[in-house]
Each structure stands twice: as C-alpha cells, then as structure tokens.
Design goal:
mainly alpha, Preprotein translocase SecY subunit, two-stranded antiparallel ribbon, 5% strand
Length: 428
C-alpha cells in the first residue's frame, strides 16, 4: 500500500482519526503549559548557565524549552523517568519486585508503573528545589522567600505529575507510547527557533556557513544510521515439530525469530541523561558548602565540566543502560520456554536451557553493535563541537534529538500500520 493511500485511510477510519486528533490535542495542551512561566527569567544568565552545564542544556531540549521559560512543567518527564530507573535497578536487589515486573503480566506492569508515579513525586520536589536554588545562585531568577520557594516547588512538581498523566492518556486513548511522544513533541517544537538562530548566527558572522553545512551532512548520516540500526534484525531460524492427530499432520513448518540490534530504542539515552542531570545538579548545589562534602561535590562538578570526561561518562552510561534495559525487557529464558511449549526449536540446538543460552549468546553480540552505536549518537554533539567550534545550545543537542525524532516516527509508523492491518483482517 502506497503512503498516499495510507494517509487517506487514516482519515477515513473514524477510530484511528480520533486517536491521532487526540494526540494533537495533548500536544497543544503541552505547548500551552510550557509557556506558562513561574518567574521572570534573566535570559543572558540562563544561556551562560546552559553553556557551563551541558546536562542542563540537554535536559532543556527534552522539555521542549520549558526549562528556558522556568515554566510550570520545566521538569518535563524527568522525575518519572528517574523513578522508573531507580525501580528497575531495585528489581536486581528485591526478588518480589522483579517477580512483579517480569512475571506479573499486565497487572504487574501497571502496579510497577504506579510505584514509579508515586516515587516521582518526591523526586520532582527535590529536583525542583535543586534547580530553583541553582537558578537563584546564578542570578537567573530573583531571590525567593521560604514560602514562595515552597509554593513554587509544589507548583513545578504538580506540573510534572500533570505531564505524566497526559502521557498516560496518550498511551491509553491515543497511539504509540505517550512518554516518548511527549519528549518528541518537545524536541520538534524547538525546530523553528533553532533554524532562526542558525540564520541569525550566519548573518552576524558568528558561525561559518560551512560549519552548518557540515552539521546538515552529519545529521543526514545520523538519520540513515538510526533507520538502518533500528530496522536491522538478526533472524534466528525456528522449526516446528510434526504432530499427527487422527489422519492429519500438523506443524513441520519453519519461520524465524527476529532479534533487533537495538531492542532498547531511545530509552538508554533518556536514562543516561536523567542520571547525568540529577546528580550533577545536586553536586553543584553542594559545591558551595565547606568541608569534605563541599570539596568532594566541587571535584565532581569540575569533572563533569570537562568535555572529555562528560563525553566519556555519557557514552559509557548509554552502553550500560542499553544492556540493562534489554536485560529487563527481553528474557531469553521465557522465550525458550514459550518455544518449547509450542513445539518449536532452533535447528541444531536442544530445547530448554540450551536454547535459552543460545539466544543469550546471540543477543549479547548483536547488542554490542547497538550499544556502541547509541553511545556514539549520544556524544555526537560533543564531537561536532570540537570539529566546528560551535557552542550554541540549540546546535549542541543535534545528534540526540535526531535519534529520538527518527525512533519515535518509526514507532508511530509501525503502530499506524498495525492499526490499518488489523482493520483489513476484520474486513476479511
């Protein structure tokens, strides 16, 4: 089916049209909330702070510029993502939590996500307090009284909870994963501003035109690489045993089990960003304290200011989270057991534990390619900065933004195709 025909079908099917329009409505609400400021902002001081703290600059792009305006949703979905990371780490230490997440089915996943929502509330309050104190110290916002600070923390935490709810609404009533789609909406909303800033920099002679041309070429390479890696799969052959029932023979067919090179998608980058942002902000606040704690915090803060140290940490965290997230979402043992129950096997491999070991062997090797690729994409802005000497915030985040945009678009296309195919089967 051609894309023109698909587009016509999307708007012809009432239910699918309703889902897409619902997502657009949530986008509008999200952008409206992003432009409701809590305080007036010193723009120049804010730009200087973003240039000094790369993690804050990267964090701002995922909030759609909400952090630039110090809006009521300035934290975006960061607290919820951080809460999920903490809970997923705890699954390795608490057997009951691991059982609920992996073996509890849909009900267990919903309960796990509910724990994440509850944990995100204190994390949002702590993060809001830390950022407001940082902005006070840097002169971005005026000094706040204790009562004003407390009410502001509650407002910003409530804004983060509201975004969580909007993301859940998209997942339930819209199409695709609501959290990823809201992050996608935040990045895309900055595109016109980034384009205008690029034109302004070229006209004023701040940046060479060929530097932006190089960035465009590099972006096209990233898009091609993201599509290739996202769509690339290792096909493991699967055969079904023949079974005789009465006068009929069942089974005996062959198929394959697709294993994606990057099954974790964009989540490792989002996880790594959350880990880098939250501790660096806390260390920045503690850096002004006296004593051993202040010295330690100041040392960590200086470490992350070094572009090589920051880039290396970012790369390693993305690689680690790629393996970690895949280990949580993809269980070779469960797949091997399901294949055995269905009378299926991998040719040349015994069913059961041997199949599980083989799947784990293949997964670890193809995942290495995906992890290194994601890590390179994550640090690509740092590489571009070194090569082109461009330090503008909007330009710095290019690589990671493209990865998320392409990943979410591909996921949306697959979901829409699945909806269309489902309705074709219903007609049959």
């Amino acid at each position: 089916m051609k894309w023109q025909e698909k587009l016509v079908l999307i708007f012809k099917i009432k239910e699918l049209r309703r889902k897409i329009l619902f997502v657009v409505l949530i986008f509008f609400i999200f952008r409206l909330l992003s432009n409701i400021p809590v305080f007036s902002v010193n723009v120049e001081k804010l730009k200087e702070t973003f240039e000094r703290f790369r993690a804050l600059g990267l964090y701002s792009i995922f909030t759609g510029g909400s952090l630039d305006h110090i809006s009521i949703v300035m934290l975006g979905l960061g607290p919820y993502i951080t809460a999920i990371i903490i809970l997923q780490l705890l699954t390795m230490l608490i057997p009951s939590l691991e059982e609920m997440y992996k073996e509890g089915g849909e009900e267990g996943r919903q309960k796990f996500n509910q724990y994440g929502r509850i944990l995100s509330i204190p994390l949002a309050m702590l993060q809001a307090f830390g950022m407001l104190r940082l902005f006070q110290r840097e002169g971005i916002i005026s000094s706040l009284s204790p009562l004003t600070l407390f009410s502001s923390v509650l407002t910003i935490a409530a804004g983060s909870c509201l975004l969580m709810w909007l993301g859940e609404l998209i997942t339930e009533y819209g199409i695709g994963d609501g959290i990823s789609i809201l992050i996608f909406a935040g990045i895309v909303s900055r595109t016109p501003i980034n384009a205008l800033e690029a034109i302004k920099n070229i006209s004023l002679g701040k940046v060479n035109f060929y530097s932006y041309l190089f960035f465009l070429f590099f972006s096209l390479l990233i898009i091609a690489g993201v599509v290739s890696i996202t769509e690339a799969k290792r096909e493991i052959p699967i055969s079904y045993t023949k079974r005789v029932r009465g006068f009929k023979i069942y089974g005996g067919s062959s198929t394959y089990l697709p294993m994606s090179i990057n099954p974790a998608g964009v989540m490792p980058i989002i996880f790594a960003l959350s880990i880098l942002t939250f501790p660096s902000m806390i260390f920045n606040l503690l850096g002004t304290k006296a004593g051993i704690l202040g010295f330690f915090a100041k040392s960590i803060e200086d470490f992350f200011k070094n572009p090589w140290a920051y880039g290396t940490s970012y790369f390693l965290l993305v690689c680690i989270f790629t393996y970690f997230y895949t280990a949580i979402t993809f269980d070779p043992k469960t797949i091997a057991e399901n294949l055995q129950k269905m009378g299926a096997f991998v040719p040349g491999i015994r069913p059961g534990d041997s199949t599980s070991g083989y799947l784990k062997f293949v997964l670890n090797r193809i995942l290495l390619i995906g992890a290194i690729f994601l890590g390179l994409i994550a640090i690509s802005p740092e590489i571009i900065t070194i090569l082109t000497k461009i330090t503008q915030f909007s330009f710095l985040i290019g690589g990671t933004s493209l990865l998320i945009i392409v990943g979410v678009i591909l996921d949306l296309i697959k979901n829409i195709d699945a909806e269309l195919e489902m309705r074709e089967y219903e007609k049959i």
